[in-house]
Fold:
Amino acid sequence: MTIASSSPPSRLPLGAAEEARPKPRTDRAGARETRGDGRLAAVFLAPALLGFTVFLLWPTLRGIYLSFTRFNLLTPAEWVGLDNYVRMVHDPIFWDSLTVTVEYVAINIGVQTVSALAIAVLLQRLTQSAVLRGVVLTPYLMSNVVAGIVWLWILDTQLGIGNEIIAGLGADRIPFLADETWAIPMIALINVWRHVGYTALLLFAGLQAIPSDMYEAAKVDGASEWRMFWRITMPLLRPVLAVVLIMTVIGSFQVFDTVAVTTNGGPANATNVLQFYIYGAAFGRFQFGYASAMSVALLVVLSAITVLQYRLTRAGQTDLG
Amino acid sequence: MTDTAAVTAPTTQAPRVRPLRRRPSPGRIVAWAAMAAMVLVTLLPFYWILRTALSANAALAAHPGDPLPVDLTTGGFERALGLQSTEEAIAQGGAGGGLRFWRYLINSVVVSTLITVCQIFFSAMAAYAFARLRWRGREKMFGLFLAGLMVPTIFTLLPNFVLIKQLGLVDSLLGISLPTMFMTPFAVFFLRQFFMNVPREVEEAALLDGAGKIRIFFRVMLPMASTPVLTLGVLTYITSWNDYFWPLMVSYSHSSRVLTVALAIFRAQTPQTGYDWSGLMAATLIAALPMLVLFGIFARRIVSTISFTGIK
Structure:
């Protein structure tokens, strides 16, 4: 099979449309519940189905296929079986890169979840200000690229205001993004800055579902805010928190933009996150097959994490009943 | 499953009783302090962008900690927009020409508008078919769409790049827009939820008046879902505006360069004197401002939709 075959995707929507066409319409006049709308549904569904098939389903299958090939974009893909996977397992840079990514995700998600939870609770218990909810969202309006460049400037060793403040306090300047130990935590925090408000609003949405009379009742009983948080908020928020966690962890594993504009993978591969390594393999060294194999590995890791988190946090159940 | 249903909370907006306490407790003072710190960390970088963009590079190096713009100038903006000559730019600490942020701004507007308008419209059509039309295989097909939610976007990028290349659309605005122009599983899923909540009676009344289902979709369903459509639209616009990885793969030249890619290129050109921070921050502001304005216009509706339905 060569990669150049481009017709299969377009066949599927038509087939699906045919399948969707039910028995002939009999009654034109009435709004009878039993009447099928197959033909109309096919029309309404056609564009989305075309997009789904060509740009989601087909690429997913093709990505898996490419992972078993040697492919440099110029010549047709050549089937090599498990070669890419064997190479991946023996590639120390791949494992380094996976380790760096996991470190990034741990810091990013850890700090972000705790901060978002704190902000969400403050937005619920302290004030109902819609303005503050808007303010919290503003960094999310920036691109990762903008956030990365702004913080690159703020954290600049010589001229950045961050280091000016540190020097003003009498401490040594820290080359945050040029230092092997600092770079990953800093990139993780930059992305916390951009995403924490959005995450907080998602959690806030979950908090809105908790009946306020539960807090009133607890207050009458003399419970402190701290106790209410652990006894009411946390148990009832758990399903929402679980879904938000799954979403953010999946997003976090795909970090690329911020690394690309701040450290470019360096210093000495210290921030060579998986997505960055994959990009380099594909567009720097034109090893699309190997890059695809690593993408499949990432996909497997993400699926495993999703299933695991879903199980662990019992996301499907809610205590509210 | 990254199922949004669980986040979708019922909109129980019980009226809240304002705490009667007159004297703030120590706990409340700490909480307000935390809130204030959070707001500062959130907003100060924006001020710092503006302050730097309006400063001259030489003065920035001499007064790195000055809270106000130093040696006030619009040189940074002129460089970003390509209004300065190469000599002028280099004299002011720039990398000398080659930047056309007007062009990139227009490219970003074209791509984001194309993606948003088409994606929301096509997704709404599909969502209507899933929510209200009767056809065989509907549930199975919807299950397939839902499964699509679980494929991380990043996984499809490499194969999609190969496809776009084979279609000869590399380095074109259409090539950047195409993969997300037709639908996202999330948009379909999200809009379906809203269409399902439109009371059947409304639709039936229109049917009895002789309206066809196409007419019902345009005249009844879409208007009734205007707030979620608007929120989804603005968020889609922001997402496509901010996307970097995909345009980076597809775009090679000025003609298809969007703001995010241009910014990264600008950042990578380091003049001999060190970064052109003033120009970079000016360019950053040009890239960020349209989204701040867009959000400013619709903020109230978006914030309430997100914070009461948990869109994502």
